[in-house]
From TrEMBL:
Domain Major facilitator superfamily (MFS) profile: 58-454
Cited SUPFAM superfamilies: MFS general substrate transporter
Pfam family membership, one: MFS_1
CDD domains: MFS (cd06174)
Keywords, comma-separated and alphabetical: Membrane, Transmembrane, Transmembrane helix
Its membrane topology: Multi-pass membrane protein
Identification of the protein by name: MFS transporter
Amino acid sequence: MLLSSRRAKQRVPGNVARYRGVTVDQSRESVAPLGDAPAFPLTELPPTTSIGINAQPRYPMFAVPIAMFGLIVALLPPLLVTIAVRLNEMNPTSAAGNVSLVLGVGAFFAFVANPIGGRLSDRTMSRFGMRKPWIIVGVLVGYVGIVLIATAPGVTMILVGWAITQIGFNFALAALIAMLPDQISASRRGRVASFVSLAQNVGSVAATFLVQLFPLGLAQNLVPSAVGLVILFVFLLPMHDRVRTEKPTETFNLKTLFGSFVFNPKKHPDLGWAWLTRFCLIVANTTATSYLTVYIIKDLGVKTADAPHLVFQATLANALGIVLTTAVLGWLSDKLGRRKPFVVVSAIIAAVGLSIIAFSGSFNGVLLGELILGAGMGSFLAVELALISDVLPSDADSGKDLGVVNIAQALPQSLVPVGAPAAVAVFGYPGLFIGGAIFGIIGAISVTRVKKVK
């Protein structure tokens, strides 16, 4: 799909933007291929396009979700299991506090890295593409952090390792998420976004399954993440990435850098409400994932060596609920042209699941609560990413804007560990889970304020 050197030098009028093999006349809102070069899918083809929707390559429709699956399999073993297990081995009495410290600091770096990664990928002019270089370098840096976690002699080194892991993987995540509007047209985003979300959650099951296959030690810390990276590379590398041929008009300076973290909710209220909805639902889900390992050890009396296997069972129950709802509801959302009702219902179901976990007092109750929570989050994830893609202010800055939106996913992972110890000290773990359910209901209310999307 690369242009020949002769065509690459072809002069293009000022009102025409060029991407890989495609000339877009912005004054007429039309798309035409240069010579016999295949058309590259833009973020959203205008109604007057000369390329029908069937001309869009199908490979990204399954390659992006599977690449996301691999990235999540690589990232989640430390978050869900191995960090908590290692910290509990080092000092059982301080495990909960140390988990909060490590996850909170790591989430702060995720919060910083994600929008910067999105902004930099928007500006990248590499002949290998805008997104792929950041994904590849990001996950390799992240794996270095996982190696540090596996070999750390103390809490400080685990914290440093997790910070490096979050920086690397969040650069990669921002670039990979930006491939959705890059590669998939609006009429297909609901389906593909649901598969991306499904891949993220099935990835958590695969991650915990791989972890529990190995005894405590280096293999348990390193092999599952390595498997995820192999999956990511197999499906990412053949994908044709969007190539930028014109230099950004905006100078990259400190103002631009700090601008990566903000958008104007007054100017773009729909994006603001969508951001708040994601934030609240991720807070709800984080309370039931980040503290599950410590909860079953401390409150349910499970031995540390048995915890990875039980966490896998709980994660599997959660993923089953997600699978039962995500793919079908993503398709139904596209069919009906509606997003908000699915989000409202999902938040209510998730709140019910968290309430069951809070008051169960047994592992069987945890399994039931995780199943229902998964069904609720599956309904949410089926349409949430498509809803956000539909309200992005600009295609040109989609990586940056999605990076800002991803703050709503990273920030709860920082704030929940800060507030969780106090909540657990006063109300116990049931109070923590009920607090998550309340945030879920707030998310259901906030999505009703989005005007552009039904």
